[in-house]
């Protein structure tokens, strides 16, 4: 497997490998041992969950809880035991945690998106993965967009360049 990890503001795309799924299963098992959560509330999302396309070497997971406004402290403590630390990223419908290569906290290997289970963002993230895995044309279009976007100057521009594509896919769910 390609080594997981990206430094802040680094953009790098690597080929897909089946080992991403194995890594997801390993991390999910770690989380289930330390966090009081049901197995069906943790999913592999993002480009590493889409077969055959390039991705940044960072694994994305989504974890669904009942309410973001009142997170059970055991969840945060359990995630910390599994190596996930809460980031200072402010987003209205999610809280972001990351796992790092070491305690210098310079290189992230995993992102965990904590969202409300069975709400819109949960469904959008899972639908995006499932839709691209089921539609080769959309998958190829997304890969082309990612490869074209990597030429942009920074991670924020790279992410912004994909936004309209992602929103278009989300709209197909409704």
UniProtKB/TrEMBL annotation:
Gene3D superfamilies: Beta Polymerase, domain 2
InterPro entries tied to this protein: GrpB/CoaE, NT_sf
Pfam families, per the entry: GrpB (PF04229)
Superkingdom of origin organism: Bacteria
UniProt protein name: GrpB family protein
Annotated organism of origin: Peribacillus psychrosaccharolyticus
């Amino acid at each position: 497997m390609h080594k997981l990890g990206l430094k802040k503001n680094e953009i790098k795309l690597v080929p897909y490998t089946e080992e991403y799924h194995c890594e997801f299963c390993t991390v999910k098992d770690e989380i289930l041992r330390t966090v009081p959560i049901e197995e069906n509330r943790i999913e592999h999302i993002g480009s590493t969950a889409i077969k055959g396309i390039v991705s940044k070497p960072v694994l994305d997971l989504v974890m669904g809880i009942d309410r973001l406004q009142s997170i059970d402290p055991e969840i945060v403590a359990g995630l910390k035991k599994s190596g996930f630390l809460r980031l200072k990223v402010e987003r209205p419908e999610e809280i972001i945690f990351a796992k790092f290569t070491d305690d210098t906290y310079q290189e992230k290997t995993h992102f965990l998106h904590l969202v409300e289970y069975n709400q819109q963002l949960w469904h959008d993230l899972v639908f995006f993965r499932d839709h691209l895995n089921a539609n080769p044309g959309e998958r190829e279009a997304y890969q082309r967009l990612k490869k074209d976007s990597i030429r942009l100057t920074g991670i924020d521009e790279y992410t912004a360049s994909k936004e309209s594509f992602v929103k278009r896919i989300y709209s197909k769910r409704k």
